[in-house]
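Internal ticket #5521
Category: modeling
Description: The requester needs a full-assembly model to guide mutagenesis choices. All entity lines are attached below as received. Residue total reported by intake: 708.
Assigned to: D.W.
Attached entities:
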Amino acid sequence: MVFNAPTQHPSLTEDELRELYRLLVTVRHLDTSAIAWQRQGLIPGYAPEFGQEAAQVGSGYAVDPTLDFVFPTYREMGVARAMGVDMVEYMSTHKATWHGGLYNPAETHLAPIQAVVAGSVLHAVGWAHGQTLSGLPLEQRGVALTYFGDGASSQGDVHEAMNFAAVMKAPVVFFSQNNGWAISVPTESQVAGGSVAARAAGYGMESVRIDGNDVEAVVRATRQAIDHARAGHGPVVIEAMTYRRGPHSTSDDPGRYRTLEDERSDGGEDPVTRLRTRLLDAGIIDEAFIAESLEAAKAEEESIRNGVVALEPRPGNEMFDFVFQEPTQALKAQAAAWREESEHV
Amino acid sequence: MSEHTTASDLDAAQDNTVETDTQQQSRENVFPSETAKTTTMSMQAALNLALSETLEDNPKTVIFGEDVGKLGGVFRITDGLQTKFGADRVFDTPLAESGILGMSVGLAMAGFHPIPEVQFDGFAYPAINQIVCQIGRMNYRSRGTMPMPITLRVPSFGGIRAPEHHGESLEALFAHVPGLKVVSPSSPHEAYHLLKHSATRPDPVIFMEPKSRYWQKGEVDLKNAGSVEGSKVVRPGKHLTLVAWGAMVARCLQVAELAAEDGIEIEVLDLRWLKPIDAGGLAASVAKTRRAVVVHEAPRTSGLGAEVAALISEQCFGTLKAPVERITGFDVPYPSGDLEDEYIPNIDRILFGIQRVLEYRRG
């Protein structure tokens, strides 16, 4: 059976397409600004997603955040924004205010941001199996959507997760953003066989490789995968082919492993201009809408920036407060000694 | 023996173990009458009963791991539980420890109380990333919104003549990780109550079962747990405190018995919780005896004995009559069965240690 997602799920409405365009512009603007914030010293570091907006916004947009649960790594800002997560709380992790972000993962259904890529792929399987065990009617069960890149796909946890999910028929969507690079190592030196989606066959799992720079294709494929998983048919692998146009992080120098010319030619068509051209040609948006979307994105970025500037370091006691639900005497004693000896209180 | 260890392999292994009962005997009294206040059972039966009652009490608890379902676990700790509670509550997983522990994290996020099993201590190594980076940190990372009420059962320590990786002493490694709690029972009574207690806590507990004691019988008071926190004096004495946990507690009790023949009254302190360590319990015992020897199977360097000795020094420096002595395994990989007796602290080595402490004179 061939999982042919993009052609099977209904086309998007004009309203949805306009909303997606707004989201793409918002995420692009915020992402570009976050790099500037780092250069200005407002935040110590950031992992840009420049070029991956369609893959992120499109998949995040397909999620039902009241039912489904998303397991990100550290480069899923666009997913978080599409899900409606508070962006100041999200950015707090890049301001080094708190690991995993200050947003509430239980409420937002976005698991904490994390750097051990592939670690959370297994969590998605466990959460998804919990849906199976819940005994709820199929339509009330959530689907776990887990993000990982071509680099993370080399980690053993991804293979264990795929095998577990397939054996247990867990409702998981493995959403792989193949952005061409694992820091400096290109996909051909990272992924044997060159394809993450191809691995699904070995686990007896449905998979699809999509144009990850086509936001409409991403939404439709993700919706179909989620429907498939929710209906109890088991996990699906989506490999969204995209391109990381900028550096891996604000500490990275991509000039050491690729030229600007490579970047331009390999990156293909920009996902944001691509949707703009398509919607303009179809008469779904006009220049006024484009200008208005950019203004809204600028205003949102300004407001988020102000929020990030205002983020104070968390009170030191929180370092001790969240280690356990039931803290040990030793930890309480260390916290008390810290309070006594610290000038912070 | 491989990861596909069979029951008969283990039977054979146990036959080589001097102190064990036969498996046949141990299978009696798995489900004792509910009216009985105390009953005699093996640690295997006590753990099995504790799991059964936990599954009954909390519909959110799930047990899973390699071979825990139909087989009932290679040590039979989950024997009969799948039949009783169904394959949704007690299920076999693919053979992948990182997968088992990573899945536990997701299940905990979904509101379950996972009780995963790692089949043998040495197979916890492939899951260290999930245990350390994920289980130990998720409550922290999520600011308390995603507790990890996971009880990881690890058949632990040596003494059953098992092949490589089937006998390890990992307590220091686990205890060093922020966000984890670690406990090891020494008797059927402790096994029953500490497991039931651990499985109802909102924080992750690494539950280290001394596999050489699985088939030993003892009295279990089902109704009265006694304290389930901190350490426990399992034999009072006044001349010296022997600190031990897990399988070493029984050996220390033997040592105390022998020493008593020479008029030396040794107090044996079962530490029970390896994190958090009961500093107060240690201080109370050593303040009385003024001498301490700590015994563990794990390698000496950076072992928990160092932590115990430091805690005693901090609290009892003025009253100590001798430095705290450590009788431990050596800084070598856990040796194969034929060399186990040379490695695991035996009665003679512990007695020599006690003698050194008793005869210590300040220079």
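Resolution: model delivered.
Comment from assignee: The two ends of chain B are 51 Å apart (CA to CA).
Ticket closed.
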